[in-house]
Design goal:
The protein is an alpha+beta fold and 173 residues long. It has four helices and six strands; from the N terminus they run H-E-E-E-E-H-H-E-E-H. Strands 2-3-5-6 form a four-stranded antiparallel β-sheet, with helices on one face. Strands 1-4 form a two-stranded antiparallel sheet. The protein is globular, with a radius of gyration of 16 Å. Residues 168-173 have low confidence and may be disordered.
Length: 173
């Protein structure tokens, strides 16, 4: 199955993709706070997908690396319109810092969005990539199981950058 997926992805991307079966996700790192726990109250009034909610803060010098995590991801199935709940984790290295409050508002703006998990993760990745212009970016969407199937799409600028989110070594130098 992995060889078939790799062959198909290589053909679609005109590249050499890495496909690996991940059988277990790590428990949350105690050093990573869920950002909704860090913010006492923010006004949320947008429940329709809105990338203009994302706000960034420029860093005076150099780059900053950070991980944001939230349990507030929810979108709706493209076919049944049933809600799909998930946890989103982003790992960023950039000259810009994503404003935490704006990120939470953005995540909540998916509440009425109707799309499958994988394109939703890709949409989030593209929106963040556009506003942050990062050196590195990884987006992991871990949805709750429905119908006995785990769907946990992720998108990363580099293979090496996936390691901190999955808490395991994928690439040995």
């Amino acid at each position: 199955v992995l060889q078939t997926i790799k062959r198909d992805l290589d053909k679609l991307t005109n590249g050499d993709c890495v496909v690996e079966l991940i059988t277990e996700f790590p428990q949350p790192d105690s050093n990573i706070d869920f950002i909704e726990n860090q913010i006492s109250s923010i006004g949320i009034d947008c429940y329709e997908y809105n990338p203009s909610l994302l706000e960034v803060e420029s860093i005076e010098e150099g780059v900053v690396e950070y991980i944001y995590k939230s349990n507030l991801l929810r979108s709706n199935c493209e076919i049944t319109n049933q809600p799909d709940w998930g946890t989103i984790t982003i790992h960023v290295r950039s000259k810009k810092r994503l404003n935490k409050e704006s990120f939470l508002k953005y995540v909540v703006s998916y509440r009425k969005h109707q799309e499958f998990h994988e394109p939703t993760c890709e949409r989030i990745f593209q929106d963040l990539n556009k506003v942050l212009e990062p050196e590195y970016l990884t987006v992991l969407c871990q949805y709750t199981r429905r119908g006995g199937i785990d769907i946990n799409p992720f998108r990363s600028l580099t293979e090496k950058y996936v390691e901190p989110i999955f808490n395991k070594t994928i690439h040995q130098e």
